[in-house]
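In this supplementary section we document a worked example of the pipeline. Step one takes a protein sequence of length 414 as its only input; no multiple sequence alignment statistics are reported here. Step two produces a three-dimensional model, which step three serialises into structure tokens for compact storage. The input and output of this example are shown verbatim.
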Amino acid sequence: MRNTTKLGVSTALALIIGATSAFAEDIKIAFIDPLSGPFAATGTNGLHQFQFAADKLVNEKGGVLDGQTFEVIGFDNKISPKESLIQLQVAIDQGIRYVVQGNSSGVANALTEAIDKHNRRNPESRVLFLNYAAVDPALTNDKCNFWHFRFDANADIKMDALTDVIAANEDIKKVYVIGQDYSFGKAVAAAAEANLAEKRSDIEIVGNELHPIGKVKDFTPYARKVVSSEADAVITGNWGADMLGLGKSIIENGFTGPIYTYYAAGSGITAAFGEGGKGTIRLISEGQINPPASDESTAYYEAFKAKYPDGNIDQSRIANTIGMLAQAIQEAGTATDVVAVATALEGMEYDSMWGSKIYMRPQDHQAIQNMHIAVHTDEGVTFDYDNSGFGVVTETTVEMAGMDSPTTCEMQRP
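The serialised model returned by step three reads:
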């Protein structure tokens, strides 16, 4: 009787400990992006935004399912596709089943291929790739796969919206296109040429060139070519240090027309442009920051700044990524069966605090949402970037941009 009683207590204690461990176990998310090198500021700020979103949108609300919380872990890929694959394997070996990445479509292409291959070979440890910023159109076209979801608009969708604005400006007769020499930069250039030819055949593209990514120290030679071309506007997909270096050099060499960009805000870029970029730098992005889209987004932004005084919410899609993943896990009833989670993400409609409904298009896993074209200014700014007094204020909104955009994706489902 005595032994039976001891065994019962031990078993009960083990069950309690096991249940407590299961209850407290985190859902780990690998953030694979640059945390060192020339793009470290962009990557570090992105990591902070993911960690804050996990805490604010999930953990502080009691987690998902039976109280499981999100933990976002940073993996430094040094902006290298090869290093990214090494970090991916480290994350998988640690039991991580969710990967987020956004800086560099070259990296995203390497990751999506590796994850697709891993999942086919290792069905017991499948991984989902949540792409929050890599916008090479191929990722949701010819290179699409079931395990990849893009929460940003692709380069073609953004360029379609940008060129609507450019085409409506009768003062623009000449455009100079310049970007980084890799898949994304090439996609931006091709989309700019195609869209302008269709919408304003009278606009002349007076320059179309690519430069090495992350290696140009002095953009003066490029800026002088832009100015000497007598372009009325510039289009660039540059980001990080390349965006800042190119933009400042163009402005300092006397260009006064609009510079249409994809990633020209936050991470020190806004402060560095300052007065010089006012009324010149224009940015297309998801999520409306100024004027604030909702009371919820205002409170969220204020809480982030309280925790990270030197940080910026310059990628509102990060909060959308975390929010949609949490909703998908809740609907699937599991965090370990990533097929069920992916199925819940397909076709999901999500009410974003940033003023737009997000629709995850099931045929290619491309998020459809409002696109905003905003201007760099210090007027009408509720929330600035870099504590500079300058921010971006929405001028034009394209609702549910790309809803009917074509895709060549042929999704193979497990």
